[in-house]
């Protein structure tokens, strides 16, 4: 009798569990809360759900995805962070799986080969090249008009591609690899960019780290208008005047370093707030079941900026693209706007005495 009772109890439990499981089907649990002792890891971890990234129209008729994966690894106390053998390749692969279609890179990052391998692997599995948008950049040592096309051909060889979707002049400042300045006029460089586009090596062309006056000079000469300007944009450096100028000129803005000084482990002690645990930002993030970095990215999206979040961590790559399923209120945007301090995390003061240095000459 005892054994029969035990068997019946087991059957009852199994039936009950199946009933609960059946009821749970179709319920989408999108969020897990993951506590952490580190302030820089105050994240709500989303389960992997492929994002649908919208596109924006460039003035030349091409579409550009509204968010991109950045592949610049940054600097540390020892200088430039050198990429490991395949860490960027893995990050790009994860990003494409997560819904990214736009990858931003550059010759000077020394990762074009890794980006290319990841793209080739995805294309081999059915991803279409035309569904991806690849941006790369001309480095400062190739500013002569005659050097632009060969430099782009080198990037294409690194990437294993026939063309890129967007090619940018990385800086208006010319500098040879031995460290001496190249005083080539960026207007000459821009003429080389136009040649590269006419050859079909890139579909669109643009500039990076140019100021308004430098862009105006290109336009006053009657040259093709840049389709894109890439600059630093984040909560501490919102650049409203530059954004308004680009909107008037129909130039799209891509924003690098979109997290600014949010992370304690990356912010200088002199950097203004906010940090990732700022109470006002945490309150907004909790309201939408998002992370503070996601709120920062969403704010840039609502400013019309194409943010370039960088990460080598799978979960964060997936988080950073999940910013198109909520909207901020005007009051929340006002809170985020209040953090603007015109503070650059990448001022590049080492080029301060170059005649084409693009930023405010502050001490």
TrEMBL record:
Signal sequence segment: 1-21
Catalytic residue list: 109 (proton donor)
Keyword ATP-binding: no
Keyword Heme: no
Residues at which substrate binds: 170
Residues marked Lowers pKa of active site Tyr (site): 137
Pfam families in the record: Aldo_ket_red (PF00248)
GO MF, one annotated term: oxidoreductase activity, acting on the CH-OH group of donors, NAD or NADP as acceptor
Top-level taxon in the UniProt lineage: Eukaryota
Keyword terms, alphabetized: Oxidoreductase, Signal
Annotated ranges, domain NADP-dependent oxidoreductase: 67-338
InterPro entries referenced in this protein's UniProt entry, alphabetically: AKR, AKR2E, Aldo/ket_reductase_CS, NAD(P)_OxRdtase_dom_sf, NADP_OxRdtase_dom
Name the UniProt record assigns to this protein: NADP-dependent oxidoreductase domain-containing protein
Organism: Spodoptera littoralis
């Amino acid at each position: 009798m005892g054994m029969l009772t035990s068997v019946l109890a087991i059957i009852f439990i199994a039936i009950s569990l199946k009933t609960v499981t059946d009821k749970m089907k179709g319920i989408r649990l999108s969020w897990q809360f993951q506590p952490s002792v580190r302030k820089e890891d105050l994240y709500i971890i989303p389960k992997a759900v492929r994002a649908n990234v919208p596109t924006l129209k460039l003035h030349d008729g091409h579409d550009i995805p509204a968010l991109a994966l950045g592949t610049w690894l940054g600097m540390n106390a020892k200088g430039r962070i050198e990429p490991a053998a395949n860490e960027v390749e893995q990050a790009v692969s994860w990003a494409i799986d997560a819904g990214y279609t736009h990858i931003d890179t550059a010759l000077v990052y020394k990762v074009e080969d890794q980006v290319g391998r990841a793209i080739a692997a995805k294309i081999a599995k059915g991803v279409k090249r035309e569904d991806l948008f690849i941006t790369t950049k001309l480095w400062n040592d190739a500013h002569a008009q005659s050097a632009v096309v060969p430099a782009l051909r080198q990037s294409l060889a690194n990437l294993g591609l026939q063309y890129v979707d967007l090619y940018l002049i990385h800086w208006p400042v010319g500098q040879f690899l031995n460290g001496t300045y190249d005083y080539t006029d960026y207007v000459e460089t821009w003429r080389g960019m136009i040649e590269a586009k006419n050859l079909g090596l890139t579909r669109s062309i643009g500039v990076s780290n140019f100021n308004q006056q430098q862009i105006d000079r290109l336009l006053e000469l009657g040259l093709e208008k840049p389709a894109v300007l890439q600059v630093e944009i984040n909560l501490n450096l919102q650049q409203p005047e530059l954004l308004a100028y680009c909107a008037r000129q129909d130039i799209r803005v891509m924003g690098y370093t979109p997290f600014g000084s949010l992370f304690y482990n990356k912010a200088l002690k002199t950097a203004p707030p906010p940090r990732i645990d700022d109470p006002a930002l945490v309150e907004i993030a909790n309201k939408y079941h998002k992370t503070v970095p996601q709120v920062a990215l969403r704010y840039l999206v609502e400013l019309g900026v194409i943010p370039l979040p960088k990460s080598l961590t799978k979960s964060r790559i997936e988080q950073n693209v999940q910013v198109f399923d909520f909207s901020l209120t005007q009051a929340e945007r006002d809170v985020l706007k209040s953090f603007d301090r015109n503070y650059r995390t990448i001022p590049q003061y080492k080029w301060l005495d170059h005649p084409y240095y693009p930023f405010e000459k502050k001490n």
